[in-house]
Specification:
Radius of gyration: 15 Å
CATH class: Mainly Beta
Number of helices: 4
Largest sheet: 9 strands, antiparallel
Number of strands: 9
Shape: globular
Helix content: 25-40%
Order of helices and strands: EHEEEEHEEHHEE
């Protein structure tokens, strides 16, 4: 098992179409984990969620988060990001920009525009989590 450098963590996070698992804390203290599609923007993990979703409500109340992204192929690896979410209510144009960037990572190219349009509706939040506290390991099973 080898610890990843910050640069290696960034490379890991941008590789392929790995989905992040976002951990938050419900009002009563129970954990909540949800998958999110994301991209990196400089030193931020960026994703979108509906304001009315459970994760959207939690993030607006308590922005503390933990993000886990893993490599599900042998010999396995993971990156963890701990931080505070910056929740924004961007303009439609900004939402569309980010929805396109995120969709381009996860859906076939002929579906990017329709996916971006569908995901840039009113009530969507843009969420940023800084990579200021990031760690990772590779070769977990080696």
């Amino acid at each position: 098992m080898t610890r990843l450098t910050t640069t290696e963590c960034r490379d890991f996070l941008t590789h392929g179409s790995r989905t992040a698992k976002l951990a938050t804390v419900r009002k009563d203290g129970r954990p909540h984990v949800a998958p999110v599609w994301f991209v990196l923007d400089r030193d931020d993990v960026v994703f979108m969620t509906l304001e009315s979703s459970l994760k959207g409500k939690i993030l607006q109340r308590d922005p503390r988060v933990m993000i886990s992204v893993d490599d599900e192929t042998f010999p396995y690896g993971f990156v963890l990001v701990e931080g505070v979410a910056n929740v924004e209510r961007p303009t439609h144009a900004d939402l569309l920009h980010w929805a396109r960037r995120i969709a381009a990572r996860y859906v076939p190219s002929d579906s990017v525009d329709s996916t971006a349009e569908r995901n840039s509706v009113g009530g969507e939040l843009l969420v940023r989590v800084s990579l200021s506290k990031v760690s990772g390991m590779r070769g977990v099973a080696a």
